[in-house]
DNA sequence: TAGTGGTCTAGACCACGGA
DNA sequence: CCGTGGTCTAGACCACTAC
């Protein structure tokens, strides 16, 4: 059997992927080192390294110095969601986009949010409430606390043309964050907005962002009934 | 001002990240080419390339040949969820794990799943229903259709020690998939399992996997009331 | 301590795609 | 066309860590 020379890292990645899928290398087994594979494929070690790094990022193999590269036993299911800008998401559905600022007031942080959004006691927070529409029907309901000590300019914006979210995305960079998804009943207030029963289940996302440990904003987004967050992998 | 020489790709990534955060390079602006940056930092172009690739994967910049590298205007919010093995998730909470197979029958695919799980008409499907417990309290309820034409051996397994999911993870590799999250009411059946009102909102995930376009399995996972899917970025 | 992956270099060629 | 990013090479040194 003649081994075809593979010299592109994507080809090598696919070949290694195939060997794992076909159980040529068993789960938990240590596969040959970079140098050996490079020799087999007739390419530089760097190229093999690139392919193996891609497989490691995908979770198919685990790599450790000295111990070598092993086929993952339980390849973790990883899924990357791209949280779209609401405006783009609505327009992608072919609907007309609009939004409306319902509330804008300096307020204290509800106690239950202290863990998720650790601002100090004396922090100045602006609370905003925004509804996003698709074809004049409510699409998403947003409740947001923003740290004015971190982004003072946020307090001076009229959110008629731009949304709080869009302004923050463009003007308040963040370095880390936390995202949570859960299900909740619409309840009294949201049931009126979405014109459904109070017991209607809604998909809710909460996101907190921070810049170098300085809390920027915390937002709860309640989506219209039937909303689905979807991704392929 | 003396420019400190940066010769590690992570240092360079951080420096470029800082310049973007500090608006030294405006959103939408084209930043210097790899060769220029390499000269500035006193390192090889490969190293700058590595740093820029990382920023591109994070969505902070967009890169195109000839056009160069631009600072992203609306950095997309990306979040990677790691869908854990239920056994590990339960044990990570310090609870005792167990599971129970409730049902196991060859069945046809419900019409509403045809879009998400495109098996042919004559496909042999095994339907399994499994409850996962944490400390003897129901944690997750799983309804699964598995394509026996793709993984015949699946039909011969007694799922007392291993769960359908674990068996598939270890024995049926997949190359692509689709993940959907939404909120749903418990309804009659699940309300009895979780011992809650029928109107209780539950967090639901549906996952379909395929190997080279051959559908493998479709699973709906309904989590206990109050469950939250969480990730940091 | 020795073996393995991780990284950096200097140079080269190539592929894409804007002008 | 031709500039830019994408990739490959051969070699070197380093960092981590299992043994």
TrEMBL record, chains A, B:
Pfam families per the UniProt record, alphabetical: GntR (PF00392), UTRA (PF07702)
InterPro entries in alphabetical order: Bact_HTH_transcr_reg (IPR050679), Chorismate_lyase_/UTRA_dom_sf (IPR028978), Tscrpt_reg_HTH_GntR (IPR000524), UTRA (IPR011663), WH-like_DNA-bd_sf (IPR036388), WH_DNA-bd_sf (IPR036390)
Ranges for domain HTH gntR-type: 6-74
Keyword DNA-binding applies: yes
Domain of life: Bacteria
CDD domains: WHTH_GntR (cd07377)
Keywords (A to Z) from UniProt: DNA-binding, Transcription, Transcription regulation
Family matches, as PANTHER family: MANNOSYL-D-GLYCERATE TRANSPORT/METABOLISM SYSTEM REPRESSOR MNGR-RELATED (PTHR44846), TRANSCRIPTIONAL REGULATOR PHNF-RELATED (PTHR44846:SF16)
Name under which the protein is recorded: GntR family transcriptional regulator
């Amino acid at each position: 059997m003649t081994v075809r020379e593979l010299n592109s890292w994507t080809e090598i990645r696919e070949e290694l992927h195939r060997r794992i899928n076909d159980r040529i290398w068993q789960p938990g087994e240590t596969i040959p080192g970079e140098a050996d594979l490079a020799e087999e494929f007739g390419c530089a070690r760097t190229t093999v390294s690139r392919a193996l790094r891609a497989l490691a990022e995908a979770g198919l193999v685990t790599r450790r110095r000295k111990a070598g590269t092993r086929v993952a036993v339980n390849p973790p299911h990883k899924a990357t969601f791209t949280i779209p800008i609401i405006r783009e998401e609505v327009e992608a559905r072919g609907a007309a986009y609009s939004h409306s600022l319902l509330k804008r007031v300096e307020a204290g942080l509800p106690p239950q949010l202290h863990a998720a959004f650790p601002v100090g006691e004396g922090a100045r927070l602006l609370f905003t409430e925004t509804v996003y529409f698709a074809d004049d029907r409510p699409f998403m309901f947003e409740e947001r606390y923003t740290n004015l000590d971190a982004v003072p300019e946020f307090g001076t914006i009229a959110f008629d043309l731009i949304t709080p979210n869009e302004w923050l995305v463009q003007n308040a960079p963040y370095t880390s964050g936390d995202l949570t998804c859960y299900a909740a009943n619409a309840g009294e207030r949201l049931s009126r907005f979405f014109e459904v029963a109070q017991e209607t289940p809604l998909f809710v996302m909460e996101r907190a962002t921070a810049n170098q440990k300085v809390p920027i904003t915390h937002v709860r987004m309640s989506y219209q009934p039937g909303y689905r967050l979807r991704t392929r992998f």
